[in-house]
Amino acid sequence: MKREAAETREGKGIGFSEPISLRIPSRSEYALIARLVVSQVGQAAGFGPEDVYDLKLAVTEAVTNVIRHAAVDDFEIEYRARPEVVEITVTDAGGGFEADEPAPAPGYEGGFGLAVIRSLVDEVILDSASGGGTRLRMIRRAGNTAKSG
Predict the structure, then answer these.
(1) Can you tell me the distance from the alpha carbon of 20 to that of 56, in angstroms, rounded to the nearest whole number?
(2) How far apart are CA 145 and CA 149, in angstroms?
(3) Mean pLDDT for each consecutive 10-residue tract of the chain (149 residues)?
(4) Which domain holds residue 120?
(5) Pairwise CA distance, residues 28 & 32, whole Å
(6) Do the bridges between strand 123-128 and strand 14-16 make them parallel or antiparallel, or are there none, so unpaired?
(7) What CATH number does the domain containing 121 carry?
(8) Measuring CA to CA, which residue among 71, 83, 61, 67 is closest to residue 12?
(9) For residue 11, is it within any domain?
(10) pTM higher than 0.85, yes or no?
């Protein structure tokens, strides 16, 4: 059976017809895997080096937040690539937090992660509640250097 897994748009990269999903142990040594995958996904979507770098930083921040705060054994990352657009969703089944409350002031326990992510991507959708886990969806369009530079 022959199946098309990717589509090409003239000069705009490749978009995968299906998401790539990883379940990653909640330990810092596995953050590199998330970065390597997003790098390849970004390149496949037609992103240049600066856009790929921003995606890698955003994924690193998201993964670090899960590892530091979620208190879970593992979590899931889903990557979706369309020509010139990458969507990344990081989901954990941890304790969650009240997403509507203002972030705590930056200090020795952090507080910069979401702000950094927001500066690196075009859209952030955060779905979390105390006791209900967290889902962070990040969307980045190619060529958006205004956010990072």
Answers:
(1) 16
(2) 6
(3) 43 76 96 96 94 97 94 97 96 84 52 89 93 94 66
(4) 19-141
(5) 8
(6) unpaired
(7) 3.30.565.10
(8) 83
(9) no
(10) no
Calculate ∠ Cα 38-55-96, nearest 5°. Answer: 90
Token reading at 107: 């200090």
Q: How many CB atoms lie within 10 A of CB 14?
A: 17
65: left (phi over 0), alpha (psi -120 to 50) or beta: alpha
| Structural domains in the chain (count) | 1
Burial of 78 by CB count in 10 Å (0-12 exposed, 13-18 middle, 19+ buried)?
Answer: middle
Classify the phi-psi angles of 143: left when phi > 0, otherwise alpha if psi is within -120 to 50, otherwise beta.
Answer: left
